[in-house]
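Lecture notes, unit on protein representations.

Consider one protein chain, 242 amino acids long.
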Amino acid sequence: MANSSKDKQKNIAKHIAIIMDGNGRWAISNSLDISKGHSKGVEIVTEIVKESVKQNVSSLTLYAFSSENWSRPKPEIDAIKKLVVKAINEQVPDLKKQKVKLKFFGEIEDFGSKILTKIDEAETATGEYEPVLNLNVALGYGGRQDIVNLTKKISTRVKEGLIIPEQIDEKMISEFSASPIENIDLLIRTGGDKRISNFLLYQIAYTEILFVNKYWPDFTKEDFVECLDNFKTVSRRFGKRI
């Protein structure tokens, strides 16, 4: 019994990522405008962040907008941009109270100067303390492009003689990645689809993945806790035979 308890204690998800899928389909199923689905999705983020703090999660990484999402209709993209600004204005004071550090990553320069300024202000405002939770938000992010970009950066430094090929290892690749997190313990995807959608391809090599059939606006903090509890029961072997 002692060994079992010890193993369970080790098997706690500290670094969690979520693909928040289903906002649009939720809106359509409820005869609402697509933008209402995204707005409702932000409300769910607020609840999950609070629960993450309560559950002593170290980092929560959210897939808010992928590089492929730019192909969506312009009115939807414009609504998402406005929602990003609105969410930052409304959520940052509460994040500061909870000591949550906010970090955006991806090709965020594509969102324009107004959003870039808001992001910089939010990251500065929430970076003034030792965080209880690191909240990482992917905007305009794509896993393949991330790998291409980090390869170019490392290649340039090799060419400049700043590093030699023998120095390249997993730690260096993680440092050059756009993602603030090296490895993810648990990846949750809502919406019912069972795919990764180009998210954190390098970081999820040994991640446990849970697919949830609910649309993101229907996802609750109880669902989140259930996912964390499920993770505790998983045997994580990392290629070893136990």
